[in-house]
Amino acid sequence: MRDIIQLLPDAIANQIAAGEVVQRPASVVKELMENAIDAGATSIQLIIKDAGKGIVQVIDDGCGMSETDARMCFERHATSKIRRAEDLFSIKTMGFRGEAMASIASVAQVELKTKRADDELGTCIKIDGSVLKSQESIQAPQGTSIAVKNLFYNIPARRNFLKSNPVEIRHILDEFQRIALAHPEIKFSFVQNEQETYALPPEKLGKRIVDLFGKTYREQLAACEENTSYVSIKGYVGKPEHAKKTRGEQFFFVNDRFIKNAYLNHAVMSAYERLLPDGAFPFYVLFLSIDPAHIDINVHPTKTEIKFEDERSIYAIIQSAVRKTLSIHNLIPSLDFDSNVNFHSPTISTPRQEPHSAYSDSSYKPKPVQDAWKKLYEGLQNNIDAFEQQAPQTQSALFPSAMNEFKTVQSKANDRPELGSSQSNFQSIQILNKFIVLSISSGLLLIDQKRAYQRVLYDQFMENLQRKNGASQQLLFPKVMDINPADQLLLSEITTEINDLGFRLQTDSKGQIEILGVPSEIGDEDGQVLLEGILEQLKHASSDLSAHRAEKIAQTMANRSAVRFHQKRLNEFEINALIEQLFASTNPNSSPNGEAISQVLNEETLIQLLR
Fold this sequence. Notes:
The protein has 611 residues and is α+β, with helices and mostly antiparallel strands. It is built from 20 helices and 22 strands.
């Protein structure tokens, strides 16, 4: 019987290794930029075309390579970072496995130009699918330039699995932001389709954060620092009032390497306990410095997972450091042990006693002038009450919008005169400005007011998106949006849906985005805050949003717009309109978030409550 086990050719072995190392264009960006950092670069330029599918190029001013090293770097397991197994426990460089360049060259067309400071000429190497095409001496500046073209050109199946350009660009931006955060002392630039997206000069960490994520982060940064013999922590955490509804900008770096660790994230979240509302996530950028002997970074080729020798101690130190920071910045309420709580009454203020003088009479207390205006309106409320009692039938004519504010197109309930007219009267009451109790044949129906509005508004926004006819309310003065380049990119992706909802945007001469109009359904809601909420929900999605982003946008709009009805006192007409539109909606039982809107309390349940 013939032998069946064979040694794979290097080209095939490299393509197999590329399956883990090179998953998408963002993987190439990560590997090339980390190599530039290891080369001691002080300036790194990233150039992207066609979301990295066309070209990914990284240019640095690092130490460069000799002719031999330039050829050897494409060999599998060729590295300058380690020499023996013991070196794995003292790694301080970004790369060390010697797989990245070989893997990239096996699935793309690569052109390398490099030159050392002492060399007269540099080296240019061209490789096509692991096959060396040419090698020659050229004139080149000090440093290295690597251009990766036509990624996965020789593996069509892998190329077809890549997502849309906006999604791939967001992944590239994520990698760029992580590396730029880890090395604020290095100059970075990011050019996409011949347009400069980022130009980051060498600076301090706080300024780098603001440059990457926007000026609004300047107000929420709180410095965090803790030094122990085992691990040192430095960085910034966000103030609780600036927490977001999505897990967005949260970064852990260990020895300047970005990592993902749910256990350490829990340490930070536990420090914010009772300071954040449910479902809110704080911002943080934390750097851990630890002896490489106490960690193992050789867990996965992407090197974003790290094993710690004593993870529990690090958890406790991080939790303590964040809590101390929040306390120092007066973000955690403190107790005043010097005050007598038995006599403390913060709701009662004692007027300050003025010293007596020859011109003052201690028995005289002048009446505040501020209350004099109230005399002008004495009796006015009685007149209003009398008017409402004499002419209740005119209210629906005077305020028809109370019943029509949430009209749902194609709603069968709108054709029922007994529900749509002002004469309809549901047997309902409002409780705590949060719930509506409706009397039904089987007992009582308890309705969550806010969730009901979410469902009604969601259906209305979906109708606008489908019909592309959202009504717009023009702003008296255009409002300039202050968003970072990553958010501008995502906003351009959803321009069609934004316009269909009723937003009106334009770009001014400086390239800034101006809001000219907002959907008429959002009431007094800030249009910029609403747009930022939509972007926040979409930009952290893990999959391609092209198929479901309309539903996601409508859901976010409904959630944000329904906030104004939380704990709002409703009149009879508003209650009737809400109930009518809820029963005529696409799903009266569940909110767009999948939460129950109502609960039936039958007679048996009510009896049990009284026992």
